[in-house]
Amino acid sequence: MFETISEFFGYVVFFYSSLLIISYMILIVRSYKAQADARLDTPDPTAIKYLLKDAPYLPGVSIIAPAYNEEKTIITNVNSLLAIDYPKFEVIVVNDGSTDNMMNLLIDTFELEEVPFIYHEYVECQPVKTIFKSKNPEYSKLTVVDKVRAGYKADGNNAGINVATYDYYISTDVDCVIEPFALYRMMWPVILHSRKVIGVSATMLISNGCKVEDGRLVEANVSKNPFAMFQQLEYLRSFLIGKLGWSCDNMLPNISGGFGFYDKQVVIQAGGYGKGSLAEDMDMLMKVIRYMSETNQGYRLIQIPQALCWTEGPGSLSSLYRQRTRWAKGLCQIMRDHLKIAFRPKYKGIGMLVMPYMFLFEFCAPIIEISGFLFTIWLLLTDGINWQTFWLIYVLIYLAAQLITITVCLFDYTVASARWKNESKNYGHLLIAGLLEPIFYHPLITLFSIIGYIQFIFNINMGWGQMKRQGFGKEKKNIRKKSTIVRTK
Amino acid sequence: MNLEYYISYLWGYISTYALHLINVFTEYPLIVRICSIGVTLFALAALVVFCLLIKLYRKRHKEYKIINNLDSKYREPLRNIILDEDNLSVYEVSRLMKYNRSEPFSKREFRWFTRLLRDVRLECEDKANENNVNSIMRAIDFDTYAAYTLKHASMDGKMRLTRSLRFLGNHIKMDEAIAKLRKSKVVVLKKTALFTYAWNNPNEALKYFDSDEFEKYCCLYDMMIFHDIMKRNATRGYSFPDLLNWINIPERKKSKALFVREMRYLGISDKCDALIQIYKESKDAVMNKEIVTNWGFFKFQDAEQLMVDTYSYQEEVVQCAILEAIRTIMSGKFSDFLHSAYMDATDYNVKIESIKSLFAYHRQGCLNIDIEKIVKPGDENLFKYFREVE
Predict the structure, then answer these.
(1) In angstroms, rounded to a whole number, what is the distance separating the alpha carbons of residues A201 and A197?
(2) pTM, full prediction
(3) Of A239, A281, B94, B221, most Cβ neighbours within 10 A?
(4) Closest CA in chain B for residue A390
């Protein structure tokens, strides 16, 4: 009896893995097609700027950056946002009841003063206490919203939407450095498509290891910190294969919260960001898609291959643990709230393909992987492993992972998404990260996801939490400091 | 004869080994057979992709060299030539650029030179001497390269060049080649070719916008190009269409509102009265909003009464536009209307617009009621805000 069950489980895992690999291969092909389309559709930056800069039709964009206790990066980030090259935009920083010196820093640096304001809650959020604008015309595009603490990014985004004056908005994080040309690139698909574009996503990469000066990225490097290096590869894979592949068929599964572009009215109609959501970005996209599908409106979702935003990734095991358990809990919330759209033709590709895929290969993956791992240990203990088959399957999966890594590097190089400083060295790092990732990093992520699921079931740590920021350009200094201490000892 | 022999020999060789391979795995379970095939395929694929990466890396580095060489050698001379107020001959241009016509650019060099020339041309903006840009192109025999590329290059290459031609001015005529691209099945290439053709041929510039095809693919980008062409035509005295004729075509749904907006952007104020009938018949909120905004923008008093009469059955966006238009026109005749608009407003944006208009009337002394006495419960803050802003 047990033998039958174990054989059945073995086959289930084998076919699950095969299906996952096949789906990745399909996504690679679709991603290649999406890149080719993007190359055709999009002129180079100079041409885009020339076409759009004086055009009266150019829509404006509000950049919303919710912040909580971000005194280390806030000034650099706001400077980076204000330095964006685009004729019509505003920057809205939403202070979610910070307890550090962030607000004072903002007030002093940008010469802010309280302004009378009228405020309408288009989407629900905690009460807004004060709105600040700068006395200095140089910072006229900056608005700072001080609101009662909610403890969720979603609430800050909602407050920002309520204050935003333009038709489109970008939701970003205060640890992000945005490329100066980003808004032109994000707006291009909106003005190019005859169908209503309701959301645009751009490739986001890890800023750890990069050189940032005055809020601008001056040198792109893959970090030497192993956690950041693995994440860099993970981000590239997710954006350049996963999201780009899905977006080719208008089935983008997520618009990253770090740099997500939306049509404001559609978001308001869809009810804004969900209260208490830990994966507010995916939740928002699902709500928007559901709203558009339920009201029978056509829409378009676009993924841009170029890296337009750089974010600080967790540089230590503890912060990585916090981030990934939160993501896992967020995924559980998404499954709880939106799995009902799966296999419903009304929601087209998102309902028929993306949601079942997410359930099977994103949500169930850690469960299947952990159970497979435990099963292997049990087989080891009972001497039930056929080593030849074991290694063959392992090599197959490992090679598939390597193929994906090399393809990601090729795609990244083709679209020149990151403009690495030393290309051969940085791609070398990424390829090495690809070799080590399945052995060291992936099991950790799987474990964190399982812990996240357990925490979700028992309602533990359901807050947003806070990531410790190093601040830009501090990584090298910290490493040096550490090594000095070691030498002194 | 020999070839057939070799082919059959090779085929026999391959099939023998294939059979041998299959036989080796016959005894194994299905999983092992699938995995073995998978491992072989993935290893080969990874190797191929890796080789492609290296090949691309080498190609890209060669291109970097070309770009840097062209930039260091030609950027300054090009800028000087383009900014030179005197019309230079082809010979002079070649001499200043130190371009050896007996050793012409390779295709790759041409590609990057075109981009460099376009960038320098755009940097110089209005100060550019178009004749000298033309001379540069003749000096390097650009026409031959462009004609070849538009005919034989990849889709990417055609697209790049067609876009660049649009920016390089209207002196290079690749009409025949571009005309062919206008029939392309790839919409984006077709559109780019159409716009480049329209830009280079002012008298035929507006054909596309007067077609059903435009209605089908109409987007903001098309309108931006249309606006550019119209602006150029207006300043240089080329043909200028009657937008009203296009708005009146019943089949046009998407583009109608955009043409009304374009009237505003181009400052066409004499058609305001003609929009009255369209407004009366239209049930499209986007269209009505654009018409009302035009009336407000051009301070068209004749439509004020009509706007007020139709206010109650318009959608909120149109109601907001009407209130804004009445505020902008400021005839002072509609104090009571503004009061009732405020009292009846249920939508927040309509309420804001009505209060704004009430305060604007109040400022001008046109309000025949006491603004402080009409505040509805819950609106105190809104009134306070506008009072403070005032």
Answers:
(1) 11
(2) 0.87
(3) A239
(4) B32
